[in-house]
Design brief:
about 90 residues
């Protein structure tokens, strides 16, 4: 979760208040940043996310993004798996 928070600070210059803050409803992310988020997740965690398979609810909060990364077997740049499969 810390790595995701850092990703938002580094990529978007945004500090997300909590893991459960709705990034879309609060306007923290706009549509352009949303696309950039997908790119950053792919780069940072080695994910390959197909647009057809995206469920917006999986990307609404840091907690849900962590779950998405865990389910898809994402690793950080060092190859470590930063999230367990039980992340929510």
């Amino acid at each position: 979760m810390e790595r995701l928070g850092a990703l938002f600070v580094e990529s978007f210059h945004i500090e997300v208040p909590s893991p459960d803050t709705d990034l879309l409803e609060t306007g923290i992310l706009d549509s352009f940043q949303f696309v950039e988020l997908l790119f950053q997740l792919e780069q940072e965690f080695g994910l390959r996310i197909k647009i057809d398979n995206i469920d917006l609810d999986d990307l609404r909060t840091l907690a849900r993004i962590a779950g998405l990364v865990a389910v898809n077997g994402g690793t950080d740049r060092s190859g470590a798996r930063p999230f367990s499969a039980t992340a929510d």
